[in-house]
Amino acid sequence: MIEIQLFNATEQIVDEKLFDFLFHQLPLSMQKDVIAHTHWQDKCNIVVGKTILKNWLKDNNKVATLNNLQYEQKERPFFINVDFDFNISHSKEIVACAFSNNRVGLDIEKYRNIEVNHFQKYFNANELLQIMTAEKPLQQFFKFWTIKEAAIKYNGNGVAVLGDTEILDNEKVKCKEKILYYQLRNIVDGFSCCVVSKNEIEAIDIKVLSVEDLL
């Protein structure tokens, strides 16, 4: 089973007092990463995402801590010698983290106005046709985009393999010749969310977090 923990800052305000408290619970290396960002929302999302991870490790009696966090060549975070994987995604005021016993990829995107033509190189002819002929083309675009993003986040090679990612059907996506399984979930109105795994996804447990859950 895959677990997704979600924090919605549109419904719960992250003020400076809360931010400061959570910020100082993080390792110094992560604090420096937060400080390097200029936008308040980006800072909040990073702090909330790492806090969700920190609390999950503690609640599930994992030996790993944020101090043990390492990064693959393309900045995919991971822990060595553990029996789980995780992946964090955020868009606007939504922060989500997926946890699984197997490698996992997660992406969440807010529906917004974009020029689909600017992204044609990332889709094949069939995918573009489905987007342009859909009842709601922009929503279809973001559904396909989150599938591909979740797949490359699973893969760990970043946007370099986005063009080599193909949606095969309603449950499978191919990324760098590897067949993966995906599931789209409507976890927040106005957003598209996708989870990717190497196995068929049978169950996803979604937990919406409150401010108290972060403390």
Short key terms for the protein model shown above:
five-stranded antiparallel beta sheet; 215 residues; alpha+beta; four-stranded mixed beta sheet
Account of the 3D structure:
- This protein is α+β, with helices and mostly antiparallel strands.
- Helices cover about 30% and strands about 30% of the residues.
- The chain contains 6 helices and 11 strands.
- A 5-stranded antiparallel β-sheet has the order 6-10-9-8-7, with helices on one face. It has a 4-stranded mixed β-sheet with strand order 4-5-1-11. It has a two-stranded antiparallel sheet with strand order 2-3.
- Helix 4 runs antiparallel to helix 5.
- It is globular, with a radius of gyration of 17 Å.
- The protein starts with a strand and ends with a helix.
- The mean pLDDT is about 95.
Strand order of the largest sheet: 6-10-9-8-7
Per DSSP, what share of the residues sits in E-state strands of 2 or more residues?
25-35%
Q: Tell me the distance between the termini.
A: 26 Å
Helix content: 25-40%
The strand count comes to 11
Structural class: alpha+beta
Number of helices: 6
What's the multimeric state? single chain
How would a crystallographer describe the biggest sheet?
5 strands, antiparallel
Shape: globular
Low-confidence stretches: none
Mean pLDDT across all residues, rounded?
Answer: 95
